[in-house]
Structure formats: C-alpha cells, structure tokens
Design a protein that fits this description.
- There is one protein chain.
- The protein has 329 residues and is of the alpha/beta class.
- The protein folds into 2 domains: 147 residues, Aspartate/ornithine carbamoyltransferase (Rossmann fold, 3-Layer(aba) Sandwich), CATH 3.40.50.1370; 161 residues, Rossmann fold (3-Layer(aba) Sandwich).
- It is 38% helix and 14% strand.
- Pathway: Pyrimidine metabolism; UMP biosynthesis via de novo pathway; (S)-dihydroorotate from bicarbonate: step 2/3.
C-alpha cells in the first residue's frame, strides 16, 4: 500500500486491495503454528481507540498487533476522560505522548478517523475500525478474503492474487445504517464482483446514484438466481428512531434468511454461502439453520479478520519494501 492510513475502501485501488489480501493469506499461516507470533512490529506501539462498544473488532485488532509483536494500548471512552468532556484532539495528543505508531479508531461520528488523519494532531498511521454509518474497511477486506477462499475451494486454485470477477454477492437488510454494506459495495466491485443490495425501501439510502451495485426489494427473486454469497446485515435498532417496518415478524418473512429459504437454496443446488458481520440477531435477519449451516462462513470471517488486520498493520507500519515471513520466530 502506498498510503499512510486506511480510512475507506474507496481509497483502495485494485492493486492495493489484492496486496492486502495476499499479505493476509501469508499472515493466516501464523495462526496454524504452535507459536503464533512474528517479530515484524517489535518495538512499535498500536493504540486501540474505541469510542463505541465492540467485541470482535477490538479483540481482533489487539490479537493482530500482538501476533506481530507490537505493544498494544487499549483505550475505551467509557471510564476515561472522554466521559468528562475531553475532546478527540486532546485524547489523541495524549496518546501520541505515549509514542503511538498506529491508532485504530472506532467512533460514532462519520468522518472522525479522517479528521484524525488530516488534522496534524498526531503523527501516526490511522486505521478506521468503523465510523458512524460511513465505513468499516477492514470488515470489507476480511469479507473479501473469505470470498476468495470460498472461490479457491470451489475451483481448486490458490487464492493468492485472485480477484472476485463474476462472483455474485447479495447484501441483505439494514443497508441504511450499515457501514459494512457501504465498504463492501465499493471493495467487492473493485475486485470484480457483481453486488446486489436487497432491503425494504425504508432501509436503503435515499440516494444510491453512483453506487456500483444493483438494488432489489425482493429477496426470493434474487435468491432464485443462485448467488455465490448472501451477506445478512444486522438490524441496527440502536440507530433507529422511527418505525422502518411494521413488525419484526414481517421483516423476517420478507428479508430474513429463514430455514425455508435455506432449504430452497439447497434443493436448487445453489452454491450460495451465508455471511454475517456479527453480532447476529438469530431468528430475525438470520435463522439458526442458516447461521449453523455448513454453508455459513461466520466463524471463518472472524478468523480471517485477524489475518487481514495483521496485514493492514504490517503494510502501514513496515511499507511495501518489507515482506512478511511466517517462518520467522
């Protein structure tokens, strides 16, 4: 990567995306070793700066940094000076006084990571771990890594250097509030995939002009095309202040990955895998039959998240000149 920060998938060229994913494939080898550690970032400090609650993303970044031998500082807004009114600027500069080399930030306001990167307040790589409804680039990257591996298993071809040309990925649910959907639409299309958004009209952004995707309101019609993957989105009720659909039962009937829809896909011999960024609302947007199906990639996505975040931290802090060597101890 020839950039200092990772703020959005719209900033990634095709070559950047493949470079990260190929590096993540190399990093994945570390997880299968007895000693799951590389010395690549020894002496570097990574700060996890989380202003929103998180389990998977925060732990994944922490694990990634530690597997690269970096020192990790975890910062949560709760119980910190932020709760007393401290600004983002003062918080960031306090952390920079601790000689941070990279700041991984999750924030409820769209654009906060960009502000941190552009402000001059800090001299460190900034990685967006999710900002408002705007972007979540490492989630999209781990989803792309998962899809490359799905294609690799289907074709018997190594995933290294592979793109997603001609794969059909369907993203279903609360697109309106989803930074995951936004990041995936741009990254998957950059890698050659055909992307279809499926949701009730009330859960789609008002303006989709320029988005590289198709839109449908009919999940059953899209599933009849036997897509390669269906990515279910969590209903983000904490971001909703109005009635976006009549009832949860009606939402599930229209746009949930129910046991009946799973059976129809299986009976049709469709190759479709089931994805979800988590946390899952079982029985609402996804049934247990789908979540626990052999077609489900949910746990694989979690594992790939560590590899992708290792790759991102390594490339941002070491540069293109270095190559990870999983055989190092």
């Amino acid at each position: 990567m020839r950039v200092k920060h990772l703020l959005s998938t719209t900033d990634l060229s095709y070559a950047d995306a493949v470079r990260i994913l190929d590096t993540a494939d190399q990093m994945a080898a570390v997880s299968s070793r007895e000693v799951k550690k590389l010395p690549a970032l020894r002496g570097r400090t990574v700060v996890n700066l989380f202003f929103e609650d998180s389990t998977r993303t925060r732990i994944s970044f922490e694990t990634a940094a530690k597997r690269l031998s970096a020192d990790v500082i975890n910062f949560s807004a709760k119980g910190s000076s932020v709760s007393k009114g401290e600004s983002l600027k003062d918080t960031a500069q306090t952390l920079m006084a601790m000689s941070a080399d990279a700041v991984v930030i999750r924030h409820g306001s769209s654009g906060a990571p960009q502000q941190l990167a552009d402000s001059g307040w800090i001299d460190a790589a900034v990685v967006n771990a999710g900002d408002g409804k705007h972007a979540h680039p490492t989630q999209a990257l781990l989803d792309a890594m998962t899809l490359r591996r799905v294609r690799s298993r289907a074709t018997g071809v190594a995933s290294t250097g592979m793109d997603l040309e001609d794969m059909h990925v369907v993203i279903v649910g609360d697109v309106l509030h989803s930074r995951v959907a936004r990041s995936n639409v741009w990254l998957l299309s950059t890698l050659g995939a055909r992307v279809t958004l499926v949701a009730p009209p009330t859960l789609l952004p008002v303006a989709l002009t320029g988005w590289p995707c198709e839109v449908s309101y009919d999940l059953d019609a899209v599933l009849a095309e036997a897509p390669d993957a269906v990515m279910m989105l969590r209903l983000q009720r904490e971001r909703m202040n109005a009635a976006f659909f009549p009832s949860e039962a009606e939402y599930t009937r229209g746009w949930g990955l129910t046991a009946q829809r799973v059976r129809r896909l299986e009976e049709a011999g469709a190759p479709t895998v089931f994805m979800h960024p988590g946390p899952m609302n079982r029985g609402l947007e996804i049934s247990s039959e789908a979540a626990d199906s052999p077609r489900s990639t949910v746990l694989e996505q979690v594992a790939n998240g560590v590899s992708v975040r290792m790759a991102v931290l390594f490339l941002l802090l070491s540069g293109d000149e270095s190559s990870p060597n999983p055989s190092e101890n």
